[in-house]
Amino acid sequence: MIEGKIIKGIGGFYYVDDGKDLYECRARGIFRKEKMTPLVGDDVLISIVDFENKKGIVEKIKERKSELIRPAIANVDKALIVFAVKNPSPNLSLLDRFIVLAEKENLEVVIILTKIDLDDENVLEEIKNIYQNTYKVIPVSTKEKIGIEKVKEELKNSVVVFAGPSGVGKSSLLNEIDKNFNLQTGDVSEKIKRGKHTTRHAELLKLGENSMVADTPGFSSLVLDDIEEDELKEYFVEFDKFDECKFGSRCIHENEPNCSVKEAVKENKIEKKRYDSYIQLLNEIRNKKRRY
Fold first, then answer.
1. What separation in angstroms does the CA of 170 have from each of 22, 167, 191?
2. pLDDT-based confidence at residue 71 (cuts at 50, 70, 90)
3. Closest CA to 216 of 50, 71, 57, 7
4. What angle separates helix 272-291 from helix 123-131, to the nearest 10 degrees?
5. Fewest Cβ atoms closer than 10 Å to its Cβ: which of 24, 144, 161, 223?
6. Residue 196's pLDDT is what?
């Protein structure tokens, strides 16, 4: 058998790169019985059924070190979460959802803010003030070639996923990083002020010897499935510095007395918008549980 990595999956076919060749593969039916779906990024073992035409069968999926559901991709090291400062306007609740999902998988998080050449309302500074004490924030303009080299640095020696809503310029940024990618780009709909989906599926793209980057479909909404209400606080990592609550680890930083996190919000040591976002997501998780 040959070992390789799934770099693309379309219509039940998985394209496996073994470092020399690309094989078009089907997956064994056993994966369906075990309710396991191969993902882009999976390290797999394949058997070859047609050497000449490079066709094979996925026989085994090796253990994953990380797994994202939306976007559906495995074994990434870092999430570059891409939002535009304008056109489309940034939805910070959606940004926080991407962050939570990345933190759940213990990924390094970097926030990329694109289209800063359009920033006539100082949105960049507003967002930086909320996040820059917790995450690296990189302002970017593909039009004016600002921030491209800083993004390239983040891609070195890593498997990186680009995630974010449609229309923020993920594909345009990747085309600037490597002209050989030649990814399709799209405009933002004037009617609904949202991006048009130009990336239809997740795909890993090689970048030099030791790096791979995934361009992924954009999302305008994101539901936090499989996260418990007492677990959510773990993914707002700025809360970690304030762990002297009266109820200790049982405190969910909402209505409890003598909560050090709530005190930190009052003292502007934790950004209130982040805390408000936490409470909003907490209530969503609760409400969903009540419905089911």
1. 25, 8, 21
2. confident
3. 71
4. 80
5. 144
6. 42
Q: In the numeric block, which tokens belong to residue 107?
A: 């990924």
* Structure tokens given for 98: 């991407």
114 in Cβ contact with 82 (< 8 Å):
yes
Q: Which residues of 237-260 are buried (b: 16+ CB within 10 A; e: fewer)?
A: ebbeebeebeeeeebbbeeeeebb
For residue 221, being part of any structural domain is answered with no
The pair of structure tokens assigned to 4 is 């390789």
28-49 pLDDT, tens digit each: 988 888 889 999 999 999 999 9
Q: Is residue 17 part of a domain?
A: yes
Residue type present at position 129: N
Report the C-alpha gap between 32 and 171 in whole angstroms: 32
**Coil/strand/helix, residue 259:** coil
Contact 237, 218 (CB under 8 A): no
DSSP 182-244: -----PBPTTT--B-----S-EEEE-SSS-EEEE----S----TT--TTTGGGGSGGGGG---
Query: Quick check: 186 and 196 in contact, CB under 8 A?
Result: yes
Residues 6+ apart with CB under 8 A from 283: none
Q: Which domain holds residue 207?
A: 68-215
Residue 181 inside a domain? The answer is yes
CATH of the domain at 42: 2.40.50.140
- Which tens digit of pLDDT belongs to each residue from 206-242? 887 788 998 777 655 677 878 999 999 999 999 999 9
